[in-house]
Amino acid sequence: FYFDFSKRNYSIEEYTMFLEKSGIFDLLQNHLVSNLVDYVTGVEVGMDTNGRKNRTGDAMENIVQSYLEAEGYILGENLFKEIEQNEIEEIFSVDLSAITNDGNTVKRFDFVIKNEQVLYLIEVNFYSGSGSKLNETARSYKMIAEETKAI
């Protein structure tokens, strides 16, 4: 059976047949999905998790950037976005090997702010709830904070 989604005037019987043959009625009747919209858009089955994560992360970075620029920081002068540690070391003549396993790992920071005396390395994250990812990120930040004391 061919169902043309651009045609929107099928009969109730045709829609019913489509829902039965596609298994959507079964999903709903047997409560196999908790949210039909999330299922149809791929969120509930895991197809869109990275997309959502990336969109949320990008949105949070844009919000943080707007706040930093409102404080007078200028992108490319004293504010840098999405910059890896090797670029930071080159631009600012600083050794970050303490936080990169002596240069064996690549670390990227969402923002770097440079003023007269201090170089700020900034990570931006957004979590809508609690969980293991949030806990692991907190542990990672604590470790980086300890390692930066050697710089």
Automatic annotation (TrEMBL):
Residues 3-149 form the Restriction endonuclease type II DpnII-like domain. The keyword DNA damage does not apply. It comes from Streptococcus pneumoniae. One of its GO terms (molecular function) is type II site-specific deoxyribonuclease activity. Transmembrane segments: none annotated. Pfam families: DpnII. InterPro entries: Restrct_endonuc_II_DpnII-like. This is Restriction endonuclease. The keyword Phosphoprotein does not apply. GO terms for biological process: DNA restriction-modification system. Coiled coil: none annotated. Keywords: Endonuclease, Hydrolase, Nuclease.
